[in-house]
Amino acid sequence: GAIDSKPGIGLDAYAGDKWKFSVDAYDMNHATMKLRAQYQVTSDTYIVGQMNALNRRDDRASYIGIRHTF
Description:
Elements: E1 2-3, E2 6-15, E3 19-26, E4 32-42, E5 45-52, E6 61-68
Antiparallel strand pairs: 1-2, 2-3, 3-4, 4-5, 5-6
């Protein structure tokens, strides 16, 4: 699929009913990886943590937030 407008592949793993862990590999010219974890608080609200460019120290960025689906 497309990840950050680049060709890539992703894998999701679930731990129980509330946890989801994801890893994406994309931009094969720069071999970039993204790691994400989310915890379901309610049926449509999640706490999310994400690290972009996991394997590229100079470009690495981490995020924590709340996701609400409609």
